Amino acid sequence: MTQNYRLTLCYEGKRYHGWERKKNLDTVQGKVEDVLSRLCGTEVRVNGAGRTDAGVHARAMVASTRLDTDLTPPQLRDYLNRYLPEDICVTEVRPAAPRFHARLNAVGKTYRYSCWVGPGKPVFDRNTVQVLESAPDLARMCAAAALLTGEHDFRSFCGNPRMKKSTVRRVDAIDLSQEGSYLRFTVSGNGFLMHMVRILVGTLLEVGYGRLEPEAMPDILAAGQRSAAGPTAPARGLCLMEVRY
Amino acid sequence: MTQNYRLTLCYEGKRYHGWERKKNLDTVQGKVEDVLSRLCGTEVRVNGAGRTDAGVHARAMVASTRLDTDLTPPQLRDYLNRYLPEDICVTEVRPAAPRFHARLNAVGKTYRYSCWVGPGKPVFDRNTVQVLESAPDLARMCAAAALLTGEHDFRSFCGNPRMKKSTVRRVDAIDLSQEGSYLRFTVSGNGFLMHMVRILVGTLLEVGYGRLEPEAMPDILAAGQRSAAGPTAPARGLCLMEVRY
Fold first, then answer.
1. Closest in B12, B90, B120 to A124, CB measured
2. Which of B76, B80, B124 is the best substitution to test chain A (most A C-beta atoms within 10 A)?
3. What letter does residue B96 receive in the DSSP assignment?
4. Do domains A3-95 and A108-244 have the same CATH topology?
5. How many helices (H) and strands (E) are present in chain A, helices listed first?
6. Residue A144, Cβ neighbours under 10 Å: how many?
7. Which of A155, A178, B50, B95 lies 20 to 30 A from B69 at CA?
8. Can you give the residue ranges of every domain in chain A?
9. From first to last of its 245 residues, what are the pLDDT tens digits of chain B?
10. Contact assessment for residue A16 and residue A27, using Cβ atoms and an 8 Å cutoff
11. Which CATH code for domain A108-244?
């Protein structure tokens, strides 16, 4: 008898070509499916709440999967952790309603982007933080962030130039905080386009360094062109923090 | 004109064969001396407050060195950080009195040993934490730690069987704390023998798992034999936190 499960995962993305299974490449989905397939003796597929890009991390990715196993949820979690590499951890396994689907049922997500503004360098978390050459202007970035919040067509912030579906998304909040040497962007919304958080951060940093004005944000949104926005911030600073249902 | 400097360094020890310079091996002292020698155009030697073993980390190692340079202390710090690898950071450079010597003037040190007791695994700090299979008994370990505190001959806790000099040291405090999945040992004293903190932790874990009694500590100290104490805990959990002058 198969049972539907909800898995919560934490991983450091550095060594992986993203979440999504890719032939002959190490991906997080691939690693999880391999362990579950060996456990069940059949090909197991896992549905993640979204794809994280190559090098992007997660503190709480959610995935759903149907399994035929005698193991209890805590036993399943321990089995997975024993056979998954040390940079992937399953923090929770619990039974889910038969129709629960981690991607289709998600109503919101929160990402955090972490930067280091010095002095020195982030020795112990260098894999999860982007090092900036100097400190950008926080007030300017906050002003720009406010203009990007809300429901907009985020086509200018989409990394996929051939995106056919709607590029309208609702960004509920872009919070900026500086604590010691860390500058963090926390972005919540109902869904995100390819590279969207990284382009939002890259654009805000341009504002922080004075190369773009906060007031330019509406025009950048209206342009509907990737070239109107700033660069894509590097993957290593990004982490999926929460998926809401 | 040479000036004496005091450097504070933070490093992840994973990739290094310890602090102390070794021919043809990557060491932290070697990396720092190489950068300073290139800057000054002469062979520069740096004195660390102590040797950390291969794989051991530091949040605040202190070193002293005499340099002939026109750079200001902040410029020196930035120069070092630019040319040192990303797992070594100089957090502070300041002028020191002519006779200041990082090792000879040190009067105390604090180390922290970090363990993970689960569930799951320490994905983001796996390089600096030892994973334990189960949670040891904290009360038993605290009782044993109290019996190891104070001035004792720590020969049983010395990793060097040919140690000729005095093995008497004063351990001021061994504090144990559990916070979430982390179990931490914080050990302060006036000086430490080779592997001493790791053998103290390895012995306390034996007590925590019921394989040794807390009351056995005085006998272990009195034995003056390495074989009387517990195993040497792995290097990856250990970090030098502070050097006092």
1. B12
2. B124
3. -
4. yes
5. 5, 10
6. 24
7. B50
8. 3-95, 108-244
9. 899 999 999 999 999 999 999 999 999 999 999 999 999 999 999 999 999 999 999 999 999 999 999 999 999 999 999 999 999 999 999 999 999 999 999 999 999 999 999 888 999 999 999 999 999 999 999 999 999 999 999 999 999 989 999 999 999 999 999 999 999 999 999 999 999 999 999 999 999 999 999 999 999 999 999 999 999 999 999 999 999 99
10. yes
11. 3.30.70.660
As to burial, measured by CB atoms within 10 angstroms (0-12 exposed, 13-18 middle, 19+ buried), residue A127 is middle
CA angle A36, A42, A46 (to 5 degrees): 45
- How many helical (H) and strand (E) elements, i.e. helices and strands, does chain B have? 5, 10
Kindly list the distances between the CA atom of residue A63 and the CA atoms of A92, A223, B59, B136, in Å, as whole numbers in the listed order. 11, 35, 37, 32
Strand partners, B152: B169
pLDDT in tens, A195-234: 999 999 999 999 999 999 999 999 999 999 999 999 999 9
- Chain A: give the shortest CA distance to residue B39, in Å: 18
N- to C-terminal Cα distance for chain A? 26
| Minimal Cβ distance to A121: which of B81, B124, B128 | B81
Q: For residue B184, give the amino acid letter.
A: R
CATH class of A3-95: alpha beta
pTM: 0.91
**Active site (catalytic) residues of A:** 53
Q: Which residues, 6+ apart, have CB-to-CB distance to B226 below 8 Å?
A: B155, B156, B157, B158, B159, B161, B199
Task: Please answer yes or no on whether B89 and A11 come within 8 Å at the CB atom.
Answer: no
pLDDT value at position B118? 86
Residues B99, B100, B106, B111: what is their CA dihedral angle, to the nearest 10 degrees? -160
- Dump pLDDT digits (tens) for B67-81: 999 999 999 999 999
